[in-house]
Design brief:
Layout lengths: L4 E3 L8 E3 L8 H17 L3 H8 L1 H13 L4 H5 L8 E4 L3 H6 L10 E4 L1 H12 L1
């Protein structure tokens, strides 16, 4: 099933795109917004967490897990098909370390899309 055409999200642009979002002329806006969101996430991490998430072992684990579970687990549960973009610890990394559990095991990981990850972070903040 093909996605319907809609107008680019850039105000004043009348280019058509499949689905929702930005046209090729303005996709750098979406990339910039996504990068800024990632930077805001990184700014909240402790130096130890930054080191963990920037490590070769974590990148390899994350890549392996996304190959095994490519779709966002929560969207899939809701009946939507969305590609997962990151791997989330459940329970949290801090809790796993505190309990002496291996944070690299698939048992404690779930693939999420960016939106579901943001929702989870907001939920945990409350």
């Amino acid at each position: 099933m093909k996605k319907l055409l809609s107008i680019c999200k850039k105000i004043g642009c009348n280019n058509l795109v499949r689905g929702t979002g930005y046209c090729d002329d303005h996709k750098d806006i979406a990339d910039k917004k996504k990068r800024e969101a990632w930077d805001r996430l990184d700014a909240k991490k402790t130096p130890e967490k930054k080191a963990f998430y920037n490590s070769h072992l974590w990148h390899r684990t994350s890549r392996r897990h996304r190959k095994k579970e490519p779709l966002c687990r929560r969207c899939k549960k809701a009946g939507k098909i969305v590609i997962g973009t990151l791997v989330h610890h459940n329970p949290s990394l801090d809790e796993l370390i505190e309990r002496g559990l291996n944070p690299y095991l698939d048992d404690y990981l779930e693939t999420l899309c960016f939106n579901c990850h943001q929702k989870e972070l907001r939920r945990k903040k409350k």
